[in-house]
Amino acid sequence: MSHLLPLSRVARLVGESRSALQRMIKQGEIATFDGKVDMEELLRVFPDIQWEDDGEYKRVEEIKRKAFGKRIMERVLPDKEVLAERLFELGKEFASAKSLLLYHDQVFGWLGSKLDDFSDCGEDAAQKVADLKKWLRQTLSELPSEAERSQALLAQESVMRVMSAQVTVRPSGHEFFVEGNDTVLEAALKAGIPLNYGCSNGNCGDCKVRLLSGQVKKVHPHDYTLKETEKANGTFLMCSYTAITDLEIEASVAGAADIPHQEIQAKVKWVEPINEQMMALHLTTPRSQRLRFLAGQYLTLEAGGASGEYYVASCPCDDRQLTLHIRRNNRPFARKVFDDLRKEDTVGVSGPAGNFVFNLDSRAPVIFVAWEDAFAPLKSLIQHAMSLEISENMYLYWIADQTGHYRDNLCRSWADAYDNFFYAPLSAREDVEINVSRILANYADLSEYEIYVAGPAMLLEALKKEACARGLPASRWHAELIV
Fold first, then answer.
1. Residue 201, SS3?
2. Quick one: 244 and 277 in the same domain?
3. Given 137, 156, 175, which residue is the final one in a domain?
4. What is the phi-psi region of residue 38: left when phi exceeds 0, alpha when psi lies from -120 to 50, beta otherwise?
5. What is the pLDDT of residues 223-263, one digit of tens each?
6. How many domains is the chain built from?
7. Residue 29: domain span
8. Is residue 105 part of a domain?
9. Is residue 456 part of a domain?
10. Which residues of 363-398 are buried (b: 16+ CB within 10 A; e: fewer)?
11. pLDDT score, position 377
């Protein structure tokens, strides 16, 4: 009987990214069935994986080792009631498997009795029956060559299923894990998947979705009242429920037009000097007012009567933390940041705005091009793509002069950490045409790529002209004009 594993869980088991596994599937190196990988196929493709050394076991052993670490237990393990229900569900599966094995054992006994009936058909038939029974006993008593690795894999997957539950969103196909005491909504947002929600505390009903398969448990009360028809078809509020088993839910993924305008009073966490020209402004939103935005969008900030528009440089998956890159100039808000904005000061945040957002349906390799401090929205897009693991390969070209490549170490760390990420700093002192030529030097055919570029008109025009000449489809060109 086949044991099929979801691709996201396979990625965790073998220590590969989903995009790398998808590339192997595309190239025919891994066979799948309905988007899942059979256990035997996994053992075939990854013969050298030592399952007992992998992540989830290490996490459990760390918890055991730090017996005093109650806070670690609370952060890593689910609530005790959720944990008990997950163990119960897993126990039912093992009980079913054991019952099936007992039944197979009975069938084998019946088969022996039936074969004995052929003993009266002559000496030759009796010998053949005896040989067949001997072969069956010997075959069933021998463990297959992959038995130990299969047992380790099953044990590892079982630990994973107790520690976390996987959620698949239909029809988009996005996947994420619910870990610890997170609700389904909290887990989706941490994964960077922009599902619709409103108040996030059970009052508005904007986060209601339909459960297609799996089991959920209510962990937070809610005042919103579901209709009887909604309850009947499996509707639940993501902000009030967690996952007991792996889930499939029917939910829409929000686009730029779906994000409502918000006004929030945030607190300054840190004003970080990067270099003489750049500051990083780190803000924290209230617990009850997490800001909804998409990577690549911008906000209006206000403090002490000074205001300005700035792109978010952080990922939507960063919970209540917002980061914005502020360039030194004569604009009122920039002067405020450089001169006298301090920790714990209040900054008014309104927005978001802008349509320079990621195409979540694409699995194509992506080229990112940033000009000076327009690196901010590109950083947000890149981190979002990394959190979702949806891009096959990512290439970043950062053209800078006055601001410098002020997050150069971060970009280089990405290139070191991710096999599918490539980074090249370029100089804005060079002619635009020279930089465009250097960016596209290795891409004779761009028909399978997506390009995201933020910069001045001269860069956008030159790059688009050359990219389209190399086959880039118009729908895969994403540009943000920076003036």
1. coil
2. no
3. 156
4. beta
5. 999 999 999 999 999 999 999 999 999 998 888 988 999 99
6. 5
7. 4-49
8. yes
9. yes
10. ebbbbbbbbbbbbbbbbbbbbbbbbbbbbbbbbbbb
11. 97
